[in-house]
């Protein structure tokens, strides 16, 4: 499938690996794909994100992703659902971090404080995004998978990246309007 990726899409995948390494994560996750998309300039996805003003709010997006990592990857809606059951995630995070240090609940791989090096595999969520990107491209009758397909796929998959994007007005529906060219065809 990787041979069908455009240069921009390949750069996003490689950038996601870099973000995973920087975070010392054992696997590449959808959040890393979103961070890599935020790094891009001059691509279809970067232009779409700029249309929503996300470029001006990159730091807020990064902060929201970092906060979710500190909550063990729970989205804000999941945190609110747990609050409805009487579980205060912020209190749990504070107690765990008090005992074990900031970021103790994150999925980062911090074994012995050493940086993990080597090949980063893709986690289930990131694989789902890549598969959805292929489906999006096929539904649009595009021959290649571009970074815009990766962005569309992130909006289709429930989780932190989709929630963070939606907080900035980037939903699948709004993104298909900006991208046009058949992006609105069913691809979930």
TrEMBL record:
<keyword id="KW-0378">Hydrolase</keyword>
<dbReference type="GO" id="GO:0008233">
    <property type="term" value="F:peptidase activity"/>
</dbReference>
<dbReference type="InterPro" id="IPR004176">
    <property type="entry name" value="Clp_R_N"/>
</dbReference>
<protein>
    <submittedName>
        <fullName>Clp protease N-terminal domain-containing protein</fullName>
    </submittedName>
</protein>
<dbReference type="GO" id="GO:0006508">
    <property type="term" value="P:proteolysis"/>
</dbReference>
<dbReference type="InterPro" id="IPR036628">
    <property type="entry name" value="Clp_N_dom_sf"/>
</dbReference>
<feature type="domain" description="Clp R">
    <location>
        <begin position="2"/>
        <end position="185"/>
    </location>
</feature>
<keyword id="KW-0677">Repeat</keyword>
<keyword id="KW-0645">Protease</keyword>
<dbReference type="Pfam" id="PF02861">
    <property type="entry name" value="Clp_N"/>
</dbReference>
